[in-house]
Design brief:
Length: 229
């Protein structure tokens, strides 16, 4: 992994995350342009080359430097609102996963199927295999089919947690007595890692999330083998 990749967002594994990354880059472009321009103006103050008495009490220039920032804000706000509403959209999901936060583990229920439910605990550093990530791997991974519209219902049993998988662009608070829902489509197979993102107690850092994205057939095999147990 290149050093720079720690500074950026994770690669997208869902269409919405692709949009979020695009939006982030779009905003960064605008910000860098503004920073460069303002930096240039500030620097030119010292040489007095650009700012002179013709820029003071000059109404056309004042109109421009009031309306241009307003336009820039609209330029940022519109795609942001569009994404916000897209993230809220629940597109007739084919599968519903229920996830409940506990101090300090996650439990999952596949309510579309009979009795497929399990708890998901972090794998202790002592029991870790050399191939898995420390503090990120769990004993029971959340298996989900890719290229399927998935709805996740999120709640908590004790305190507020937050179910987060960065590569899917998903982050939702798990609140006792309240049911939150998010929707996503996973666009590729793989293992996607996340962590509880709401400080929930002493072992807050030790309740990771692992989503295992597989093909529909593998998912159905997994479901039938899980429901037999
Ligand atoms: Cu938590």
């Amino acid at each position: 992994m290149a050093t720079w990749s720690y500074l950026t967002l994770q690669d997208a594994s869902s269409p919405l995350m692709e949009q979020l990354i695009f939006f982030h880059d779009h905003i960064m472009l605008v910000l860098v342009l503004i920073l460069t321009f303002v930096g240039y103006l500030m620097a030119s103050l010292f040489s007095n080359s650009l700012i002179n008495r013709y820029m003071l009490e000059n109404q056309p220039i004042e109109i421009i430097w009031t309306s241009v920032p307003a336009l820039i804000l609209i330029f940022i706000a519109l795609p942001s609102l569009r994404l916000l509403y897209l993230l809220d959209e629940i597109n007739s999901p084919s599968l519903t996963l229920k996830t409940i936060g506990h101090q300090w583990y996650w439990s999952y229920e596949y309510s579309d199927f009979l009795q497929v439910e399990f708890d998901s605990y972090m794998v202790n550093s002592n029991d870790l295999e050399s191939s898995s990530f420390r503090l990120l791997d769990v004993d029971n991974r959340t298996v989900l089919p890719m290229m399927t519209q998935i709805r996740v219902l999120i709640s908590a049993a004790d305190v507020i947690h937050s179910w987060t998988v960065p590569t899917l662009g998903v982050k939702a608070d798990a609140i006792p007595g309240r049911l939150n829902q998010v929707s996503f489509l996973i666009s590729r197979p793989g293992l996607f890692y996340g962590q509880c993102s709401e400080i929930c107690g002493a072992n807050h850092s030790f309740m990771p999330i692992v989503v295992e994205s597989v093909s529909t057939n593998s998912f159905l095999n997994w479901i039938s083998s899980s429901s037999e147990m």
